[in-house]
Automatic annotation (TrEMBL):
PANTHER family: OS06G0112100 PROTEIN (PTHR21234:SF43), PURINE NUCLEOSIDE PHOSPHORYLASE (PTHR21234). Keywords: Signal. GO terms for biological process: nucleoside metabolic process. This is Nucleoside phosphorylase domain-containing protein. Residues 1-26 form the signal peptide. Residues 76-325 form the Nucleoside phosphorylase domain. GO terms for molecular function: catalytic activity. Transmembrane segments: none annotated. It comes from Oryza punctata (Red rice).
């Protein structure tokens, strides 16, 4: 009998054998994961929550010491994939917060877990940032309308032709005068954005949620001028509608931050915002960003980054907490109106 005939004749029996074997060899579910699933289900039965994420320990400490967050006495946290998701509320609004860790991979993984596992109605991201806009002062809070990932480059060959106005040519920064440089130039690249129900498209600027941004524009928040070690000469302000930049590097170079502002109109620089916005944009979940200025991303006094990190975190959190309370109040009003109709 030919091999092909043998295969055709015995294929049904072979499939039954494989199916029987696979079911008996299936790995049992780990008991710990059973408990986590039970915890997640319990949290989700509370209803929708707002996801709140921050990147640095100092930013999480600001939340823990603020008194804004009230842990849920039934189940105060869920440990999942090495991260702790804290369950509770802020000003009566259900909130799940998590410390992401630094840079975009950590930020994206944390946010993706939040929106995949928990029932969240949106993501609020707050933290500190460097300023690349001379009109932004220490302690100010930026609510960007657009953010971009400016850490994706194509490294061009030495003496290659300029393709766009936003290339970074190393020769322009030769001292005492500009000229040629063997490093050549960098061409900034777009990101590939995959969205539900839409074809992939390349984008550079990522917008925050327009409805949430309008709410943020109407907030009235008095920011802090002093911390335990330092007082600013003037009360900081909330600035809406600027642009933010993220990259997987801590920027501490005055010339590069000036370049970002000059070429892209970027006012703040950080390491996570673009990842947070991109991760939530794909499934169409609302997102907003609040970043407090803690340094000038190069060229500032040596005391600024250490003395004002805490103050910048507190101010960004203060705006975020007021935003969460406002969104919660609007949802309660909408639900009450629907119930009465």
């Amino acid at each position: 009998m030919e091999l092909s005939s043998l295969t055709r004749c015995h294929l049904p029996l072979l499939l039954l054998f494989l199916l029987a074997g696979s079911s008996s060899m299936a790995l049992p579910v780990h008991p710990a994961m059973d408990r986590v699933q039970w915890q997640v289900d319990k949290v989700n039965r509370r209803g929708h929550s707002i996801g709140l994420v921050m990147s640095y320990i100092d930013e999480a400490t600001a939340l823990e010491s603020s008194g804004y967050f009230r842990p849920w006495h039934v189940l105060p946290f869920v440990d999942l994939y090495g991260r702790r998701y804290h369950i509770g509320s802020i000003r009566g609004v259900n909130v799940i917060y998590a410390l992401t860790g630094q840079r975009r991979l950590n930020a994206a993984v944390t946010v993706q877990t939040l929106i995949d596992v928990f029932s969240v109605s949106g993501i609020v991201h707050y933290g500190t940032a460097g300023s690349s806009n001379d009109s932004m002062s220490f302690g100010d809070v930026s609510v960007p309308k657009f953010v971009a990932y400016t850490g994706a480059w194509t490294w061009k060959k030495f003496k290659s032709l300029k393709e766009s106005d936003t290339e970074l040519s190393f020769g322009d920064f030769n001292v005492p005068n500009g000229g040629e440089n063997l490093l050549g130039a960098l061409k900034f690249r777009n990101e590939e954005l995959y969205s539900v129900g839409k074809p992939m498209k390349e984008v550079f600027w990522l917008p925050v949620d327009s409805a949430w941004f309008k709410i943020a524009e109407e907030l009235k928040v008095t920011l802090e001028r002093c911390n335990n070690t330092f007082c600013l000469p003037a009360t900081p302000k909330v600035v809406c509608g600027l642009k933010g930049s993220s990259a997987d590097m801590f920027l501490d170079n005055a010339e590069y931050r000036k370049f970002l502002f000059r070429e892209f109109g970027v006012s703040t620089v950080d390491e996570e915002s673009a990842a947070v916005v991109m991760t939530t944009t794909s499934p169409g979940i609302p997102v907003i960003v609040f970043r407090g200025v803690s340094d000038l991303a190069g060229g500032e006094p040596t005391w600024s980054s250490t003395s004002l990190m805490n103050l910048a975190s507190i101010n960004a959190l203060k705006v975020a907490a007021e935003f969460i309370a406002t969104v919660g109040k609007q949802k309660s009003t909408t639900s009450a109106r629907s119930a009465n109709n």
